[in-house]
Amino acid sequence: MVTELYCKATSLAFPCFRCPPSPDLARPCPTTGRHFHQQPRLLNQHHISGSQHSPPSEKRENPKMALNLRQKQMDCIIRMLNLNQPPNPGVSITIAGVSTEEVYKILVLDRFCRDLLSPLIHVKDLRKHGITLYFVIDKERQTVPDVPAIYFVQPTPANIARIVADASRGIYESFHLNFSSSLPRPLLEELAAGTLKSDAVGRISKVFDQYLEFVTLENNLFSLAQRDVYVQLNDPSAGDPEIEAVLEKIAGGLFCVLATLGVVPVIRCPSGGPAQMVAAALDSRLRDHLITKNNLFSGSGNLSISFQRPILCLFDRNFELAVALQHDWSYRSLVHDVLDMKLNKVSVQGEKYPLKSYELDDSDPFWASNSWSPFEKIALEIDSQLNKYKQDVEEVNRRTGGQKGAEFDGTDLIGNTKHLMNAVNSLPELTERKKVIDKHTNLATVLLGEIKKRALDSFCSLENEMSIKGNVDKNQLLTQLKERGTKEDKLRLAIIYLLSAETTPQSELESVEAVLRESEVDTCAYQYVKKIKSLNMSMMSSAASASRSNIVDWAGKLYGQSLNAVAAGMKNLLSGERQLALTRTVEALMEGKPNPEVDSYLLYDPRAPRSGTGSQLKGPFKEGIVFMIGGGNYIEYKSLTELAQRSQPTKHIMYGTTEILNGVEFVQQLQILGQKTGLGSSGINPSQ
Fold this sequence. Notes:
- By secondary structure, this protein is of the alpha/beta class.
- It is built from 21 helices and 18 strands.
- It has a seven-stranded mixed β-sheet, sandwiched between helices. A five-stranded parallel β-sheet has the order 6-5-7-8-9.
- The protein is globular, with a radius of gyration of 28 Å.
């Protein structure tokens, strides 16, 4: 339902979704004289004007689809593009008091929301929903009269100021404002005051909180798109207010994810560090929201059976540091690491063709079927599909081609006509198949060139050997560091070697550092991890007495968790099963059985009373959300996907993170921390 929001600061009524209720807002609208009481909005799938609306519980009728985040976010986006009304063909939409069958609109985005839409909807799909033009909000735009504008932006002071300026100029007929997360009260009052001052109130049609501040890359993969969180949380100069602001922002992003899903999970996390801080903040935010009568989760019911609610497992990047640095041999990981895939898009420059951009998602059948395959199988699969394509083309030509010297026969004409029609109908499918084959041929060719140039197979082999044996031949390691590979490749290998064993002789460490310096590699990141590892060893004996009251005391506790996990799990880091320490922990948490590895993990249940023994929902769970604070990667995503598939019965596991990082990006964050700690030079040298 849509209700009028009355702003006590400006005596202005806005149609808006807000929560929680406040008696200050139960005042009469100055325009109509009626009382509009503030109501919390329902699931954002159910934004419906007027009193007619579908029960939220209808969205939960299929438990297997409960965590289909991509589809639910897409439903919200489509509804927003249809002026927050159901996109029913043939049903008229009322705008500015006029009923019309089709409304042409302009879409205005900020850069965050543009990236949010990028993996979900194409330009051609925007046109299907009446979007004729779209712009970035911080660019100058011309007046387009008699056309409504849909704004989809983050609730920031800069965006509010720009909206007020646009409304004051009257560049569009009406403004439908949609914010990616909850609009804070001060910004709402600033919006109201600004439009009232410029006499632009009438142009503001409605204001919506969409709770969509996250990027869904795949059905089971999402990112909050919050950059450099790892640096912000581990910055030695950061104070409590800065760290708490980062943690609150992460909790806010997770709240948006859960609001879109319409589920209230049971939260598990290790004790201490950012994971516990985010868990506590999210638990508090959910509890405060659930006390309202018609809240975002009212459709999910008061479920008490554990498998009907998912488990949310929170970790921070230091839990398993080496995974963020390692080289991987799967096609998808190579495309992300080597070709720098962003938002499911990649651009490559070939020797014989100009720069080309490609989209890689589930709409690409080759990518969907083969992206997790080892790279050596990709060339074979491309060759197989190319041969199949050629056979199909030859078959079409054979069926449609006439025989020389044959007499005219009406029967043959009918038969050839049918074959010709079938051939014409098959042309679009054959053309699309050829485009897909050419795309992956180009990508594989560029990847092969980089693999040979950088000897990536050797890096993968050495890291695999370290994972199996817990060590590696010193001469082989030093040889690899001296030869091919970029400076970042060598730095990543050196840090993984540093983390691969609990203790490493000082002479070996000095040899590695000497080789890195000979290759002109900035060792800030290496020195930073080395220092933290040393700190971890000294903290082990006093861990029991370490204070947990100070946020900035994280270093010892965080890396204590990290290096313990690495020492226990490095042997399986790159083995065939890829059973990472993260995956083993998630499996144990979802099983809910007594396990010394997870018995100390904290449990938060926002639906349980604050007092008393707390929640008894400890598993087993059929659905899980795993969230990595400080940067995630496709290696962990693949490992969790394999866990879900091999489980009996099959589990549903989603993987989310503050941002998706490849090894180069993460080592650069370590480099920044090393510089902030005063352990090296001012910047990382360019790759060679």
